[in-house]
Amino acid sequence: MFSRIARPTATLARSLSTSSQNNAKVAVLGASGGIGQPLSLLLKNSPLVSQLSLYDIAHTPGVASDLSHIETRAHVTGYMGADQLGAALKGCEVVVIPAGVPRKPGMTRDDLFNTNATIVATLADACARHCPEAMICIIANPVNSTIPITSEVMKKHGVYHPNRVFGVTTLDIVRANTFVAELKGLDPARVNVPVVGGHAGKTIIPLISQCTPKVEFPADQLSALTVRIQEAGTEVVKAKAGAGSATLSMAYAGARFTFSLLDAMNGKEGVVECAFVRSEETECKYFSTPLLLGKNGIEKNLGLGKISAFEEKLVAEAMDELKGSIKKGEDFVSNMK
Questions:
Q1: Cα–Cα distances in Å, from 107 out to 104, 110, 113, 156, 242?
Q2: Alpha-carbon distances of 80 from 58, 76, 261, rounded to whole Å
Q3: Separation CA 326–CA 145 (nearest Å)
Q4: Cis peptide before 213 (omega within 30 of 0)
Q5: Which is the catalytic residue, given 59, 157, 161, 199?
Q6: Backbone angles phi, psi at 41, to 5 degrees
Q7: CB distance 337 to 156 below 8 Å
Q8: How many CB atoms neighbour CB 239 within 10 A?
C-alpha cells in the first residue's frame, strides 16, 4: 500500500534519466516567459516527453530553435500568435499554462486578476476546442481564481473533466520541504510536507504535522515557518526588486508536477501530488489536497487526513478568502461576452 503522503515518485532527477519512456505530446502556453523558458528546458530534457509544443505571443520561434539543438528525444515546435494557437494544441495530452504577467513589489496575486483572467480564459477556450481530453495544468496566477475560470470555460464547451484540470501548487510543497529541511538539517530531497488549501497567502496551509520524516517545532517557530511558506513568493518578488517573481523555482515545481502526471498516465502506480482541483473535501468547491494520480488524471482525492488543531484553525481562516477568489473566477466567465 502506498503512503498517503509519499514523496512523488517522479522526482526531477529520475525523470531526467532514461529509465522511463513515453510518447507524450506536451504543450507549454507562455513558453517565452520567465517561467516558460526554464520550464520548457526541463521538459525538453525529459525522456517522458516525445513532442514539445511551445506557444506564446512573441519570441517562440527563437526559444524553440534554441531548445531544438539539445541532444534529447523530444521534438520541439514553436508557435506564435493567436492564429497558431490551435495548431500548437492539436494532439496534446498535457497542456501546461504559465502564461500571464508576473507580480511586482507591492502586488498581491489577486492584483494580477484582470490581465491574467482574460489570458487564461482565452487559452482554456482554445484547449476546449483543440484538445478537450488533455490534462490542463494551470500555473498562471491567481490560481485560486484561474482554476474556476478554466473549469467554467470548459463547461461552456461541454468538455469539462474535473479530474483533468489542475492548479499547480507544487511550489508551495517544494518550499515547505526546503524550509523544513534547512531548519532540521535534513536532506530536502527526503522531506515531504503536504500543503493544502489554495495558492495565495493565508490560503496556503502546510501540514507540518504530516511531514515525513516526522518533525516537531515549538509553537512560535511553527507559526513563523508557516508564515514564511505562505509569503515565500513575496520574499522572491522583493528580492528581485521589480525584475519579476519566482520563475526558476516555479519552473522546477511545474516540471515536477508534469513529470508526476506523465508517470501516472504512463501506468506508474502510487504517484501522489497536491494540486488545487474541484473538490468535495471541504465546504470550498475547489481545494488543494494530496491526490493519487492515474491514467485519467485524478484517480483518488486523498483528502486532508488527520490534521492538528493549529492546522484546523488555518483551514477555517482560509475559507472566506478562498470562496471569494473562486466566486470571482466563476463570475468573470459568466460575465464574458
A1: 6, 8, 11, 31, 10
A2: 6, 13, 26
A3: 5
A4: yes
A5: 199
A6: -60, -45
A7: no
A8: 10
pLDDT tens-digit readout, 124-166:
999 999 999 999 999 999 999 999 999 999 999 999 999 999 9
Nearest to 147 by CA among 287, 34, 42: 287
Short-list 249, 327, 337, 278, CA closest to 151? 278
Res. 55 pLDDT band, cuts 50 70 90: very high
Whose grid coordinates read 516527453?
49
Indicate if 59 belongs to the active site.
Answer: no
Q: Which of 146, 177, 193 is nearest to 252 (CA)?
A: 177
**pLDDT digits over 88-97, tens only?**
999 999 999 9
- CA dist 306 to 12, 64, 144, 310, Å? 29, 46, 24, 12
All three cell numbers of 268, joined, read 506508474
